[in-house]
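User: For a teaching handout, I'd like to show students what a predicted protein-ligand complex looks like in token form. I'll give you the sequence and the SMILES for fe (ii) ion. Please answer with just the structure.
Assistant: Understood, here is the input followed by the structure.
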Amino acid sequence: MKLTSEHLKSLHELYIAHLKKALDMEREITKALPTMVEKATTPDLANAFRTHLKETEGHVSRIEQILQRQTGKADSQTCKVIGSLITEAKDGIKDAKDDATVLDATLIAAAQQVEHHEMAVYGTLRSWAQLMGHNEDVALLESTLKEEKAADEKLTRISAQANARAAA
Ligand SMILES: [Fe+2]
Ligand SMILES: [Fe+2]
């Protein structure tokens, strides 16, 4: 695709708007993950959430770094998607009551929905950054995208183990 300077200007504005939403998204996730750690009924799952909380703090600072470079400040904008996903997760936790198997399955489902949303967000941001030649941004976005994918895969493995235990 051949981009004119007008196209680049609108793409840049779109990029900044989505970065601001990504910042809100990551901050909301850092607030939600401690509850996931607390509610998880197996050490594997609790550790997976704990590790991803640490990584997510890094995701916040990478987005802040990109926004600082692009706009001179790190303002956020409300991400409605993460708000809905977190509300759904809280409802699921309430519905699971104290049934450990259901609770862990609920937590894993909620977390994987979040990871998939993040993968979509970072895949898009990375493509736009590539198009505009923001190479330092591409590297940071790529690192985060890899961690989101790895977190999702780890959750798939934990859920398979939990299912095998439940079936045994
Ligand atoms: Fe993240
Ligand atoms: Fe994540």
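For the handout, you might add this sentence: The chain has one domain: 11-167.
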